[in-house]
Design a protein that fits this description.
This protein is of the alpha/beta class. The chain has helices at 62-67, 87-113, 146-165, 174-189, 193-227, 235-267; strands at residues 7-11, 17-27, 45-59, 78-80, 121-122, 125-126, 137-138, 282-284, 290-292.
């Protein structure tokens, strides 16, 4: 039996293969499958490319990943082989890897909540609800990366700030932000230096994007105020301008909080051990006498014929300025004391 379902088979950076089916989002035929007929109603479905309904990971070959799906034949699917030299492929693979990790965490949470259940049916076979495979994830454990968590958190804040400054009353997803902040804080405790550096770089870029949104909002408000000066007095305009200014102040406070958080992360970063550089090294010759290695300004012997003084710095006596008529001790490159006599001087 064949039933259209968008899916992708991709290769991870470690060489293993995975297959994921995107979640069904909505119907394009007015919410009624019968309007499209028995033969074409499956093509009326749209799929959400931002989440998996089912995914299987960690297969040694592409064929093994393809055979991991035991449901109805989806008809076709996209295949993405990992190519480290292709930025577009790396971006796709990074996105699929994060979607698989999100599905694992979701399945793990649901399995823990339903570990006492005894019956269930998914994908044509009976599985225990306490198993992650029951909730659509098959394969080894995987968790979201610090960079993926940070990208999602920053996107939530920036999307809300942009619409908020534009005058919309969209509710801020504070619960999701708090959940992501908690996960990010836990990952930072064990983050490698490269991950922490990338985190701080993205955090700085996030603050810059917020500054850009705030500057644009202020420019729009000032431009609107300039245009409204030629119109009759309208109390509503003053109220609107005040609300916009209050929102700008709120976003400015959000940026200040982000900058304070960045300082906190910088101070909590483990310090590097101090390094010392020694310029002299004592060595003993056969007679027991100590020798000192030449310091930085001097050069050591390079050939057997060279002597210890071959490369010693030479000092020339300073020339007497009185020997050159028309010159002064502080004269410039042109050798004259009067600035009016210099070329191109005013």
């Amino acid at each position: 039996m064949s039933y259209h379902h968008e899916n992708v088979t991709w290769q991870s950076p470690d060489g293993t293969w995975n297959r994921g089916f995107f979640a069904e989002d909505y119907l394009t035929c007015g919410g009624n499958e019968d309007e499209c007929g028995d033969e074409t109603h499956e093509w009326c479905r749209e799929f959400d490319q931002s989440r998996f309904e089912w995914v299987s990971t960690g297969h040694p070959t592409e064929d093994a990943a393809w055979r991991s799906w035991t449901g109805s034949n989806p008809g076709s699917g996209e295949v993405v082989a990992y190519d480290p030299d292709s930025p577009q492929v790396r971006e796709w693979v990074t996105e699929y890897e994060d979607l698989a990790a999100k599905k694992y965490e979701e399945a793990t949470r649901k399995a823990a909540e339903n570990s006492s259940s005894r019956t269930g049916l998914y994908g044509g076979s009976y599985r225990h609800p306490g198993d992650t495979s029951y909730w659509g994830y098959e394969g080894p454990a995987r968790h979201r990366t610090l960079a993926a968590l940070q990208r999602e958190r920053n996107s939530l804040v920036e999307d809300w700030a942009g619409t908020y400054l534009a005058g919309y009353d969209n509710l801020r997803r504070s619960d999701d932000e708090a959940r992501l902040d908690t996960q990010i804080a836990e990952r930072l405790k064990t983050a490698a230096p490269q991950e922490r550096a990338a985190y701080e770089q993205e955090a700085a870029a996030h603050r810059d994007r917020l500054h850009t949104l705030l500057d644009r909002a202020r420019q729009r408000r000032l431009e609107d105020a300039r245009r409204s000066r030629g119109y009759a007095y309208r109390p509503g305009s003053l109220d609107q301008a005040k609300r916009r200014a209050d929102r700008e102040q709120e976003i400015a406070g959000l940026i200040d909080t982000a900058e304070e958080s960045a300082k906190t992360h910088a101070t909590s970063r483990p310090a590097r051990p101090p390094t010392t550089k020694t310029t002299t090294v004592e060595k003993a010759d056969k007679a027991g006498r100590s020798k000192t290695k030449p310091s930085a300004p001097e050069r050591a012997k390079t050939t057997a014929k060279s002597t210890p003084g071959s490369f010693a710095p030479k000092h020339q006596p300073q020339a007497d300025a009185s020997a050159f008529p028309g010159s002064a001790p502080n004269a410039g490159a042109w050798g004259t004391a009067d600035a009016d006599e210099l070329p191109f001087s005013p």
